[in-house]
Records
---
Amino acid sequence: MLRPSIFGEDLFDDWFAFPDFRDLDRTERKLYGRHADRMMKTDVHEHDDHYEVDIDLPGFKKEEITLELNNGYLIVSANKGLDKDEKDKKGKLIRQERYSGSMQRSFYVGENITEEEIKASFKHGVLNLTLPKKEKEKLPEKKQILIEG
């Protein structure tokens, strides 16, 4: 007969196993929930003259996402809140599993890139960024200084 178990596969393994302390640091999980490691998943593709960055932001609207370029870092922020009026219209909230709050991620893109050169679009919960490739300013070659005398 199959019965659900509150223990693992083997009752004695649960009782006699060495304690696992990995779950003590749950500060991020409190904010983002059980699936915090899946937030803002990013893919970066390199092309000959530019980079393409795809960032998953499911459930967000375009108005809830901000992009900022600061000292060579591109900062992507998303902020999603719940309206109290919306809860009252839908009834009493008993369980909430969908994310609400804010998250942020930054990428170093170089100090030669300007805001006008970055192209952004948002479709179907995916933020697509196009960043141009730019050469770093070349430093002058090292030359030996001759000492007179």
---
Amino acid sequence: MKFEVVIPIDGCENEIEFELSKLDDFFSVIKGMQTGITLKLMSFGALKSLAFELPDDFTTKLEIESLEDISIFYIFVLQAQVSDSSMDIFSPVIMNNKSLKMGQIHLNINELGLESLNDILPGLK
């Protein structure tokens, strides 16, 4: 399935379309149609989910009418040494499976009540 990028993905700001390929119930890959860049994704439901609200301008750009129409993914960076792999849980990629529009949202850990994570994980933004 191809998705139009209406809110840029970090590191892929010039990409206007990605093709989604599901690998299994938890993992997928998106490939940029212009650049060929691939990003590995993990389904939002694979981990304990965060509760957050989507801003109105985000839902408008992605044409989200119902939460049942969207899929939420974390960008997953897999390294040869598994312990060096990482995932950005505070900047998920959201895809509207109905309008075929997608974008990345940046969550504020303070608004989520998770500001104490800064003390535990100093590398977080």
---
Amino acid sequence: MTDTTQYLSQEKKSELEQELVQLKSTKIPEIAQRIDEAKQMGDLSENAEYHDARDQMAWAQSRVLEIEAILLNAKVITATGSNDGFVDLGATVVVKVNGKEKEYTIVGAQEADPLAGKISNESPLGGAFLGKKKGDKVEVKVPAGMQEYKILSVK
């Protein structure tokens, strides 16, 4: 059985809840009105407005289902740091790799943004850090080859 838990920060959970409300209360009714107006124009086979609105409705309804599934399986992570010194979800890890220091925050897949230093617990790098502590060396296969990361701190 596959684990469907979606790890989210409270901020991301609130953002998704707001998007869901906006889709259901505003966006979908607006698109439905556009579809109705396009239907009144007559021949639907060559009605670009109708087809565009139908495509947007399909996307919006699909997004609603996606958000509902995420929220149904959501577990809020707290950035309490790692009291026991081990890397866990929500922890920020400072590492040394190739002579450079880098900082990563371990987040759920929905919030991953590698350019902002947020890496998913499901990524090879994030997964390799989980359960490690300050001073540990972690080897990870990345696109550039095998890299060794030394954990300098866990907060």
